[in-house]
Structure formats: C-alpha cells, structure tokens
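Case study 2.
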Amino acid sequence: MTDKGTNQRATDRVRTEAVMGTLVTIHVVRANEDGVDPAVERAFGWFHEIESRCTRFDPRSELMQLTAQAGVPVPASAILYEALQFALLVAEESGGAFDPTVGHRMEVRGFNREHRTGEIVRSTISPDDDVSYRDVRLDPDRRTITLLRPLTLDLGAVAKGLAVDAAARELEPCKDFAIDAGGDLYLGGLNPQGTPWSVGIRHPRLDNELIDSLQVSNQAVCTSGDYERRTHILDPRTSTTSGAVASATVVASGAMLADTLATAAFVLGPRDGIDLLTRMGVEGLIMTPDLKRYETRGLARAT
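Prediction:
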C-alpha cells in the first residue's frame, strides 16, 4: 500500500515480523546512527506487548481474563485501559457504528482462529444479542474495568493502531521512517528520495490496481474494505454486514484514530461516514461498491 521508495539506500534498515495476525514492516531511512537498531527493537516490542494484553485469540490474555469476570471491577494495565477507553469514546461518537463488544458476534461468524497456531478459540460465554459498549464501565480513579453483562470484547483495530502509534513514538528520533502493519500505516518524515511518502489506495474491485494515491508525512493512513473477507466488518447496531461502502480510508495524526474511524465510517455509509470524519477533524476517502467517491475537503493527493 505504501511506496517505500525505489532507490532504497544501503544504510536504510528494513525489518519484518509476523505479529498481531499480520506482517509488520519497519523501514528507517538513512539509518546510520547507533540508536536506530535499539529503537526498532523497542518498536517491535510494543506490538508483541500490546498483542499479549489485548488479543481475544488467546485465553491467557488480559483481555480474555477480563471477559471471564463480568460484573466485577477488574484492575487493568495502562495498555488495556487506554485501548478500551479510546474504543468507547469512538463508539459514543459514532453512535455505536464502532463497538468493541462485537467479539462474540465475530466469533460465531468464524473469526476465531489464532494466527500463529491455527487453533480455534472460543469464549465460554453466551452474551445476549443486544449487548453494546454501554455495558462497559471504566473507573479512571481506580483504573478498573467492569463488564456489566457477559460479553466478549474485540479490540483488534484499536490495539493494532495503538501498537503502530507506540512504535512511531520510539522511532521519532529517526525522523524518516515507515511502519506498515498489514496496511495500517504510519509515515514519519520523508521517503528515501527526500519527499513526502506516497501512499496508494487499493482499488476495491480490481486486483493489483490503485484507486487513488495520497501524499503523507508524519501521519497515519488506515483503510477498511471488503476486499477479500466480505463479512468481517459488522454493523454492531444490527449485527449485519454493511453493503453501502467498498472501502474507507482515513488519514489522521495517529493510527489508532485512523483505524477505528475507518471502521466506523465503513459501517456508517458514505454520507454519514464523511460527516463523522469531518467532525473528528481527520481526512478521508470513501468508495461505494459502484465506485462513487466521497471525500473530505483537505485530502492531499500525491502528484
């Protein structure tokens, strides 16, 4: 999705790891300082740490341990508390188009396979169909989380975005770098040619083609689309899949914000989705299945 530059220099550092169910690549441009390799190591460390706390595909994770304790205030790590707090804020702002309590509904639709082992992971609860983000309570003073009813949380988009943002903070001293976490991008500074990064947006209906390209520097770009798995984005309000949008791309200051808003905009539909992005102060492009475009006014295209 991102053009990392065709004239990559010998001093660049590029490293890829499998984590969070995808391949994560970090590319540091002109990486000739002593602190680069430790920064990249710490950046990948955030992906592994956040996955271990926030995944619903491991019964030992902090998230799944929380799921097993409905009705009880559970002390939370800073990572899990921040991820869930942010998810609830976006849920409220989007009127429930984004909702972190869809875990069980995703599970029963077959999205329950651990990416490293292939093992099927099933929660032990059977929540009511009408559970929502309103059934979660946070206590900021005690930093506890209470699930008011049995439910399964899914923090996939939030956790991956949080990890990208944490990795970007580690890499800030490097100035020029790219993080690609399965299409969730953060582009720091400039590319190897010394210009803003060019990000291609995949065509939602034609393989190996782009529908547009953007010019990005010190920003995140995330896309939600129906490319291969056409049932993986549920409308939490109706428990049905959305058919009004083929892809929603968001450009924001951070990946956690961009990823969650891309999901919400996909569910809301083109007009309401663009209204949400504008209200949240981010840029975006939404494509319908018949390739009609809806976009915010400040979208910066690559030349």
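The CA atoms of residues 223 and 249 lie 4 Å apart.
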